[in-house]
Amino acid sequence: MSSQPFTLKWGILATGGIAKTFTKDLLIDPSTRNVTDIRHEVVAAASSSSTSRAQDFLTDVGAPSSAKAYGSYANLAADKNVDIIYIATPHSHHYQNARLCLEAGKHVLCEKPFTVNAEQTKILIDIARKRKLFLMEAVWTRFFPLAREVMQFVGEGRLGEVKRVWADLSFWNDVEKEFGTGHRMVNLDLAGGALLDLGVYSLTWVFQILYHLQPLPRTPPIVSSTMTKYAPTGCDSQTTVLLTFPSSGAHAIASTSLHISSVPSPSHPSATPAPVRIQGTLGELTIASPIYRPTSYTLIPASNAKRGKLADFEYATKEFEVEGGGHGMFYEADECARCVRDGKGESEVCPLEESLEVMRVMDGVRGAGALVYPGGLESVEFPLEV
Ligand SMILES: NC(=O)C1=CN([C@@H]2O[C@H](COP(=O)(O)OP(=O)(O)OC[C@H]3O[C@@H](n4cnc5c(N)ncnc54)[C@H](OP(=O)(O)O)[C@@H]3O)[C@@H](O)[C@H]2O)C=CC1
Ligand SMILES: O=C1OC[C@@H](O)[C@H](O)[C@H]1O
């Protein structure tokens, strides 16, 4: 391997909240997290509204003055200096934006949920594979050091056989006051709703443990669900998914709500069960809030004296710090750089087939709840104005 770090040149598509957070993380020196084999360069950003908005964004995040500002996403996709594009538009636009970039020959990291439905995701995967481009859904949670450690712990069988996973991501919002009807969280025209926005994290924890760790070929879950709508817009405001994984018989409950909180009182963390509980025959591993940015887990050995085999771990809580003063989005960015450097079309930590399976589950849940997105949002036609 060369002693020079590999540089990945990023273009940022959209200039909203998460684009800002992600780009700031890209600009943090990787050595602050002990990474020396790769580095990131922000070479361009685009806004669909104006070049000046893109320029303000670049200035705001502290990008180098050489970074180019574009007033159209197509111009960004055509920039020969850009290796990979981070897509940070609302859900409704992911398929169109990601496809635009892939068709222009760019590697793509696309915010969650990957697309509005599985059919759209499948088409993006096919294009990326055909064109030998890297593609990944930006499920940043999977790349946190905590998540890597938990996966190793469970994968080594230290919890025994995992029989059940509970996962909940619910925010206690004053939905009417905070979101009204136009906000992307609840706006049907932007493919809003609890399931696609927050429930995808609950499903991520379920899938990491009960799907990703299955021996190959993996078997998808059998799914049932219930959903309550937010009357002013018709999106889902509360959704619960029950999953059975046939190869192990394990169950999962993945839930999300916009009206109640998984952790109503963060200052009294032990007053409510942990939002993620991984329950094995030898004990339980719980993950503290926020489950999308995980920094604390607890091990609870089963202490039933009648049991033949006992856990090889003690009761303990382990805390992690996000290094370098960032938000933690650089962990997924580092994975992108290593995959592109190594000529990989996808990440083994966040495989395309797994993102597709999660999209299929969400399709089924939306089908059961009669949640259909309007206009061309569910269409695979390209290009299509949405
Ligand atoms: N990983 C994470 O932790 C998080 C992920 N997300 C995901 O990131 C995506 C964006 O969320 P967030 O940054 O909060 O959203 P914002 O509303 O803050 O930003 C979205 C941006 O998309 C662009 N855009 C293009 N078309 C539209 C349109 N019709 N309506 C609104 N915006 C449009 C705009 O940028 P411009 O005008 O420059 O084109 C806008 O600033 C979502 O998919 C969300 O699920 C969100 C928050 C956290
Ligand atoms: O992806 C997300 O995670 C964090 C939340 O704050 C945000 O609303 C959601 O989109």
TrEMBL record:
Enzyme Commission no: 1.1.1.179
Gene Ontology MF terms in the entry: D-xylose 1-dehydrogenase (NADP+) activity; nucleotide binding
Family, per entry: Belongs to the Gfo/Idh/MocA family.
Record's protein name: D-xylose 1-dehydrogenase (NADP(+), D-xylono-1,5-lactone-forming)
Organism ancestry: Eukaryota, Fungi, Dikarya, Ascomycota, Pezizomycotina
Reactions catalysed, as given in the entry: D-xylose + NADP(+) = D-xylono-1,5-lactone + NADPH + H(+)
Species for this entry: Amniculicola lignicola CBS 123094
Domain GFO/IDH/MocA-like oxidoreductase, residue spans: 148-261
Domain of life: Eukaryota
Keywords: Oxidoreductase
PANTHER family membership: DIHYDRODIOL DEHYDROGENASE, PUTATIVE (AFU_ORTHOLOGUE AFUA_1G07520)-RELATED, OXIDOREDUCTASES
Occurrences of domain Gfo/Idh/MocA-like oxidoreductase N-terminal (ranges): 9-136
Enzyme class: oxidoreductase
UniProt-listed InterPro entries: Gfo/Idh/MocA-like_OxRdtase_N, Gfo/Idh/MocA_domain, GFO_IDH_MocA-like_dom, NAD(P)-bd_dom_sf
